[in-house]
Structures are given as C-alpha cells and as structure tokens.
C-alpha cells in the first residue's frame, strides 16, 4: 500500500491546516513522527493506521484548474484529509498556456449567475441556479489574491473501481518499478479536462458520455479574394451562421463583435463564439456552413445606399480610391478591396460610378456571404463540448448521482463557455463546490470518529 505523497499547500493554507488539524504533521520522507511547525507537507503520519488514512483520503484525478482548486478547498476545510492529486502531465499546464500567457482566469463583466450562465453553449440552462452563487467570479478573484499555488507530481490514472464497502480503488499507470499501481480512497474527484481516460473512468461508474467535439475554433474559408485582406481587423461586425441541413435559426448563431481576417479564413471573438454555439451542428455537418457578415451593423441597408448616393453627389470629382463615406468607418484596404470586387478602376471619379455598382457595394457591406469549408487547424482546440451530462451529477455538490463519494468538476462535464474567462470560471466554481462537499463530508466523518482516534498530544 502506498505512502500518501504530499500535496504542497501555499503557506497561508498550510498554516490554517496546522492550526486546525488534530494530527501531527510530518514530512513524507520521514518515518518518524514530527510535529515541527515549519513542515508544510501534509501527509498521513506513520503512526496513523492505513485504514484510517484511507477512510480520510481523497484522490483527485487531474491537476488542472478544477482539480487543484478543489484539492486546496477540501484540504482547507478538512486539514486531516489526505489529498493525493494525480496528473499524467504537468500541473496547471493549460492555465500557463491559456490566453497566450495572459490567461483570462475569469470574466469580471458578468458578476451575477444569470449573466454568467448565458455564456455557456453547453450548460446555459443548468448553471442559472446555485452554481455560480456558490462561487462566482468575484470569489475567484478574491481566492487568487489570497493564495499562491504550488504543486509537483506526475502519474496517470487509468481506471477506478469501488469495493463492496464503498472504498475506491484507483489504478495508477506504472512508470517506475517501485511505484504502486493501486491507491485506495474514500473520495475520488475526476477533473481530467477533455482527456479520454477521464471519460472512461466516468463510464466505469455507469455514467453516459456525450460525444466530445471541438469548440472555440476559427473558420477555414477558401475564398482566394480573402487572402488579400489577411490581417485586417473589423472592430464590429454582425455575423450569422447558417448550417447546411439545419433550418432553424437560433438567436445564438448570430453574433456581434470584432472579426479578424487570417490567411486561412476568419477568426476573432465573433467567429469563436459562433463556433461554440454551433459546435455540435458544425461537427455533424462536417464544418460546412454559410457565414453572412454585415460589416456595418449599425446602419440599415437603405441608409447605406442613401449615404453612398449622397457621397456620389457631394464628391463627384474625387477619385473613388481616395474618398469613401466616413460613416462606414472602414479601413482603406477594405474599401479598395470592395472596389476591386466590382471591377472598378480606383482612379475613376465618383461621378462615373454606375448606380448598380453602388447598390452591389451596399449589399456586400451588409450581407457578404462566405462558404465555411472546414474548421481552422489549431493543434489543441480551446475547449471541448461534451462529456459527463450535467443531469448525472448534483450541481450543488458536484457529486455523481450514480456513485456516492465520486465527484466531477471542470471540462470533463458537458459544460463549455465562450471565450473571455468563462471556461476557467466553470473549473474554479465546480472545483470549489466539489472541494467544499468533500471537505465537509470528511470533517463530519472525522467528528464521528474522533472518540476512537489518538490525537496529537501537544
Ligand atoms: C490554448 C488554450 C487557451 C485557453 N485559454 C483560456 C482562457 O484564456 N480563459 C479560459 O477561461 N479558458 C481558456 N482555455 C480553456 C481552459 O484551459 C479549460 O477550460 C480549463 O483548463 C479546464 O480545466 P480542467 O481542470 O477541467 O481541465 P484541464 O485544465 O485540462 O486539466 C485536466 C488535467 O488532468 C490531467 N489528466 C487527464 N487525464 C488524466 C489521467 N488519466 N490521470 C491523471 N491526470 C490526468 C491532464 O494532464 C490535465 O493536467 C484555454 C484552453 C487552451 C487549450
């Protein structure tokens, strides 16, 4: 049976744990009991019986945002709890790479639950209740200002089962000769992100898995003309996604915001949001869709035409390349591009532009249609739609409805949000609620067992 390795806590949390724990604290490497106040490695002491250690133990599968947040929360509430976090890769790796190194850890614009929930293509109905009330963006911001997080470990969990007396047996990938391949625990939290192994563990306990598909990606558009505009940013467009084979027009499939032209197609917040709301259908239709873009959403098409005709009257002697209506707030490169699409010579004077060309320019500005032929190729999609259905867990505790003492948090669940910190906030909130539930359960178990335990004599 393994020695419980250490979960290193930040100094503040460790100090709180030292104050509260009825056990002596000792280093994992030491076989002797030590109650040194400077120890920060919180592990089961050698005098503690194995059964007791297991009875008060939590295995967390996945040391990402949700897993680490939950571990620290559970440990803070139940300092005697032995917490073991397994990660097959590096801890908090996505937190480090996200946002291009400037991670959007949460979203400060939506501080109330309803506003938050609206940003989750998967979860917008279920998350309207207590989920973000329990721990919302402001709590996360406060938590970050209160803690520093330091963790080191590295093993993959490949499976888990439960014994007749309700204990979990967690299988750990054997990488070194002396590393155990099973760990027993009273509680298990699965916080494996979009890893297939996490879904397999959930399935082993009777959970169904909603097929995972990518979300938050760019659109590939093979319109050669677009290449000329590569790098141009539009601060505000209105874009509508129409999926082949789908008649309904969901309001979420129309989005307003910034858009960027890339050398392979279209990107930017508007496109990423559309990819999230249409993730499942886009996958179903092999990423074939039509995207209609309104480049000047604040001006009605009839007004666009009127402005163009007025400009023709007032600037009759100006070259069309050099003069265009300021109301449209267009970059010159895009205006010239529009003229090229009309095969108009830029040196022509406004007086010479045929009216039907002006009508077509207005149409292009208001409803340019692009064919989406694929999703942009990005090594890791930003986030995965799908996973364990929310109906199979309790959102007030994050506990499985199929298996007592089994918990889920983060992206392993069928929740994903649009860009802007919503995905991390789901992980923080779910992790916090799971950690709170486990910590509370462990504390109440501890109180029930206390008469039979030997307490730290100091
Ligand atoms: C490039 C990129 C940028 C992003 N930027 C942002 C952003 O700015 N803002 C935002 O809100 N969201 C962002 N996201 C999304 C965000 O990173 C995720 O939603 C979030 O990390 C999910 O947290 P999680 O804890 O559920 O899963 P993860 O962070 O994916 O953590 C899961 C962990 O579990 C481990 N694991 C998996 N299987 C096993 C196993 N069998 N045994 C042991 N360990 C296992 C993995 O190694 C991983 O460390 C970004 C994502 C990417 C890819």
UniProtKB/TrEMBL annotation:
Record domain RsdA/BaiN/AoA(So)-like insert: where: 213-383
Name a Pfam family for this protein.
HI0933_like
Q: Which InterPro entries match?
A: BaiN-like, FAD/NAD-bd_sf, RsdA/BaiN/AoA(So)-like_dom, RsdA/BaiN/AoA(So)_Rossmann
Which parts of the sequence belong to the RsdA/BaiN/AoA(So)-like Rossmann fold-like domain?
152-436
Identify the PANTHER family for this entry. Answer: OS12G0638800 PROTEIN
Q: What name has this protein been given in UniProt?
A: FAD-dependent oxidoreductase 2 FAD binding domain-containing protein
């Amino acid at each position: 049976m393994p020695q419980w390795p250490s979960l290193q806590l930040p100094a503040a949390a460790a100090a709180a744990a030292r104050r509260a724990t009825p056990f002596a604290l000792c280093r994992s490497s030491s076989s002797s009991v030590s109650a040194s106040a400077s120890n920060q490695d919180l592990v089961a002491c050698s005098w503690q019986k194995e059964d007791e250690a297991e009875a008060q133990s939590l295995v967390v599968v996945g040391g990402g945002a949700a897993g680490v947040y939950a571990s620290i929360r559970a440990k803070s509430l139940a300092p005697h709890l032995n917490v073991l976090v397994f990660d097959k890769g590096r801890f908090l790796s996505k937190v480090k790479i996200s946002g291009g190194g400037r991670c959007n850890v949460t979203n400060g614009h939506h501080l109330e639950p309803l506003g938050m929930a609206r940003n989750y293509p998967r979860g917008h109905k279920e998350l309207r209740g207590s989920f973000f009330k329990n721990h919302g963006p402001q709590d996360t911001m406060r938590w970050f200002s209160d803690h520093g997080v330091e963790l080191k470990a590295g093993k993959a969990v490949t499976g888990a089962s439960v014994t007749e007396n309700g204990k979990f047996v967690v299988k750990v990938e054997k990488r070194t000769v002396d590393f155990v391949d099973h760990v027993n625990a009273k509680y298990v939290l699965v916080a494996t992100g979009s890893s297939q192994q996490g879904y397999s563990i959930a399935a082993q306990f009777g959970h169904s898995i909603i097929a995972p598909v990518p979300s938050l990606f760019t659109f590939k558009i093979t319109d050669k003309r677009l290449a000329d505009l590569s790098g141009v940013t539009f601060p505000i467009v209105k874009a509508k996604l129409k999926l082949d084979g789908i008649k309904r027009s969901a309001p979420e499939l129309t989005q307003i915001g910034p858009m960027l032209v890339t050398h392979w197609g279209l990107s930017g917040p508007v496109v990423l949001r559309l990819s999230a709301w249409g993730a499942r259908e886009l996958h179903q239709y092999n990423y074939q869709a039509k995207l209609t873009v309104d480049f000047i959403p604040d001006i009605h098409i009839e007004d666009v035409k009127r402005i163009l005709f007025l400009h023709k009257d007032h600037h009759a002697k100006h070259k069309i390349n050099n003069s265009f209506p300021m109301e449209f707030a267009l970059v010159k490169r895009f205006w010239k591009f529009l003229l090229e699409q009309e095969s108009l010579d830029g040196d022509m004077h406004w007086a010479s532009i045929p009216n039907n060309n002006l009508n077509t320019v207005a149409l292009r500005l208001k409803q340019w249609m692009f064919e989406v032929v694929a999703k942009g190729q990005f090594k890791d999609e930003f986030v995965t739609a799908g996973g364990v259905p929310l109906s199979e867990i309790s959102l007030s505790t994050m506990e499985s409805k199929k298996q007592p003492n089994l918990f889920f948090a983060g992206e392993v669940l069928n929740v994903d949000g649009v860009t802007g910190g919503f995905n991390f906030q789901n992980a923080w909130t779910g992790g916090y609620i799971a950690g709170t539930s486990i910590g509370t359960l462990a504390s109440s178990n501890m109180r029930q067992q206390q008469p039979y335990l030997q307490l730290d004599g100091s």
